[in-house]
Design a protein that fits this description.
By secondary structure, the protein is an all-alpha fold.
Length: 189
């Protein structure tokens, strides 16, 4: 952010803003707004969010400049960049917390599913669905889901191409899920 802004202009611009000069505030917003938005887009990959966060950052900068809180007026560009970076980081940190809270809220739904259907019943249904697969498809699923092997590793064990293993794994999963869904439906539907 610092290259395109003449640092000698910073002290005069800040002094004008501190005196309540609306044109100076407009000049600051015009100078830094597009650069802040570009930085936010690069960090969030979201243009609409970038517009909102850039506006939040500019408001914080204007409040700080009005209150005379910029310690080094020659480094105004660095100050603006730091404020913008903090606004984005705070948003991302808060967004991550909200996502974690939502995950925690989803746990009771899983627990109620386990209460409704016993583990033994689900295991029996799963074994029944797996039994309908060929031995090699069953091995592919086991090596993928239980042992965490990649398609290339499984392909080497079975003498197949990795693309073939991916396709067979996908089809086997779909068959198991379809069988489980059919077996879990109430009778008569």
């Amino acid at each position: 952010m610092g290259d395109a802004f003449d640092s000698s202009v910073g002290p005069a611009l800040l002094a004008r803003i501190a005196r309540g000069d609306a044109e100076a505030e407009t000049s600051l917003v015009q100078q830094f707004g597009p650069r802040i938005r570009a930085m936010v887009v690069a960090r969030t990959r979201n243009h609409d969010l970038a517009r909102d966060l850039a506006q939040d950052a500019l408001i914080a900068v204007l409040r700080a400049t009005r209150a005379g809180q910029v310690r080094d007026p020659e480094r105004l560009s660095a100050f603006v960049h730091g404020v913008a970076r903090n606004v984005v980081s705070n948003y991302l940190r808060g967004n991550r917390r909200r996502a974690e809270d939502q995950l925690v809220d989803d746990v009771p739904a899983v627990a109620s599913f386990e209460d409704d259907f016993g583990d033994r019943e689900r295991q029996a249904l799963l074994h029944q669905a797996l039994a309908a697969l060929s031995d090699s498809d069953r091995r592919i699923l086991e090596w993928t889901l239980v042992e965490g092997l990649k398609p290339g590793d499984i392909a080497g064990r079975l003498g197949l191409a990795a693309d073939v293993v991916r396709t067979r794994k996908s089809r086997a999963l779909k068959r198991v899920l379809a069988a489980m869904a059919g077996l879990l439906r109430p009778a008569g539907l």
